[in-house]
From TrEMBL:
Residues 142-156 have a biased composition (Basic and acidic residues). One of its GO terms (biological process) is protein folding. The keyword Signal applies. PANTHER family: PROTEIN DISULFIDE-ISOMERASE C17H9.14C-RELATED, THIOREDOXIN DOMAIN-CONTAINING PROTEIN 5. Belongs to the protein disulfide isomerase family. Residues 11-138, 150-272, 273-402 form the Thioredoxin domain. Residues 1-23 form the signal peptide. This is Thioredoxin domain-containing protein. Residues 140-164 are annotated as: Disordered. GO terms for cellular component: endoplasmic reticulum. Keywords: Redox-active center, Repeat, Signal. GO terms for molecular function: protein disulfide isomerase activity. The keyword Transit peptide does not apply.
Length: 406
């Protein structure tokens, strides 16, 4: 009888576990699911970046939210340049064997019209993955843009020059350096396949029209899939990146909301307009309020020293990440609250898109944004993956120093 119960228990487990993993995978469903039946037909119609995975694989489960975030960005309805997809190798073993999948997850890029796929071998973070996609798409985009440029030259057309201030300027390797060499410039670094860039495009056009009578600033854009070296020089890691440039030098990355009013207010603020100072309140907190918040901006140089003593709660983020932007005001509130206790808890953040922080984020096993880790006397705790409400964050972090409530 006991043996029969044991067999029944194992059978139930066998039925429950696949259902559990399937439910976990279907929490977000932006990535296109490919099967043995539709795989060849799909990749014959478009570029595909495919995750071959097994539901039980721990690395696959950690990659899942980043992969779905990537799919949400790129799987646009109108003419996507690459489709983010996935194949469950426990369900389609022959298909995975055909593509030489020997470990999970394996990420392969299938370029339209080519028989061989390219395996992704980098770190599984958003900057590395998007850079890889750029590399795969870059050759075909260069051909397309080259043909367009040749057509312009043949027809006597010219690339917009620096005297088009106040209008949206399309920058290239031919006019970029000269254009930004003097004056103020608000530049959008983008990729055509990026859905956030596509949503911003009409607003950016509108902004250019709004400031067309202001001679002190130009609104411009540059395609990073074509002019990659320029974007690398300006340390662009995600799209869109909006940079304020003065006399050829990057002043800062725009940190606020991407609505027309917020962008316009930012332009006026950067130009020193008093009206802009008031209007920009929604995107930039007064300096005295910033000081009160006490959020520590850490880098690879001071990270180890900062977390070595006491308790530090660190947010690893990317400025372009929507979830990070939503968390930002809550993180500020948390910092202010922790600064008011008798034994302050340090609240910090690390920008993983900054070149000097990339190694740090890899070492700390950051695979998606935002990632929240608490450190006690230099020892990293398990990743915080609960609710990101202020009350829950306070309850979590205060347990390390014995505060019952604040």
């Amino acid at each position: 009888m006991m043996a029969g119960k044991k067999v029944l228990f194992l059978v139930l487990i066998g039925l429950i576990l696949p259902a559990f993993f399937t439910a976990a995978e279907e929490e977000e469903n932006f990535a296109v699911e490919l099967t043995s039946e539709n795989f060849d037909e799909a990749i014959a119609k478009n570029n595909h970046f495919v995750k071959f995975f097994a539901p039980w694989c721990g690395h696959c489960k950690r990659l899942h939210p980043l992969w779905e975030q990537l799919a949400e960005m790129m799987n646009v309805k109108d003419e996507p340049q690459v489709i983010i997809a996935k194949v469950d190798c426990t369900q389609h073993q022959e298909l995975c064997a055909k593509h030489e999948i020997t470990g999970y997850p394996t990420l392969r890029f299938f370029k339209l019209g080519e028989t061989e796929s390219v395996k992704f071998k980098g770190t599984r973070d958003m900057p590395a993955i998007t850079e890889f996609i750029n590399e795969q798409l870059n050759s075909e985009n260069e051909i397309a843009h080259g043909e367009e440029d040749n057509k312009k030259k043949t027809e006597g057309g010219e690339v917009p020059a620096a005297d088009t201030k106040g209008k949206l300027v399309e920058l290239t390797e031919d006019n970029f350096a000269k254009h930004i060499s003097s004056g103020n410039h608000f530049v959008k670094f983008y990729a055509p396949w990026c859905s956030h860039c596509q949503r911003l495009a009409p607003t950016w056009e509108q902004l250019a029209k709004t400031v067309q009578n202001i001679q002190d600033v130009s609104i411009a854009k540059i395609d990073c899939t074509v002019y990659r070296p320029i974007c690398q020089d300006f340390e662009v890691k995600g799209y869109p990146t909006l940079l304020w440039i003065e006399d050829g030098k990057k002043i800062e990355k725009y940190p606020g909301a991407r609505g027309h009013d917020e962008l316009h207010a930012y332009v006026k603020k950067m130009l020193g307009s008093d009206a802009g100072q008031d209007a920009a309140a929604s995107t930039e907190k007064p300096s005295d309020e910033k000081d009160k918040l006490q959020v520590l901006q850490l880098s690879g140089d001071d990270f180890a020293e900062t977390v070595a003593d006491g308790v530090t709660f660190v947010k690893f983020y990317a400025p372009w990440c929507g979830h990070c932007q939503k968390l930002s005001p809550v993180w500020d509130q948390l910092a202010e609250k922790m600064h008011s206790v008798a034994n302050p808890i340090k609240i910090a953040k690390v920008d993983c898109t900054a070149s000097e922080n990339k190694k740090l984020c890899i070492e700390q096993e950051v695979e998606g944004y935002p990632t929240l880790f608490a450190y006690k006397n230099g020892v990293r705790q398990s990743e915080y993956d609960d609710s990101r409400s202020l009350s829950e964050l306070v309850a979590y972090i205060t347990k390390f120093v014995g505060h019952d409530e604040l």
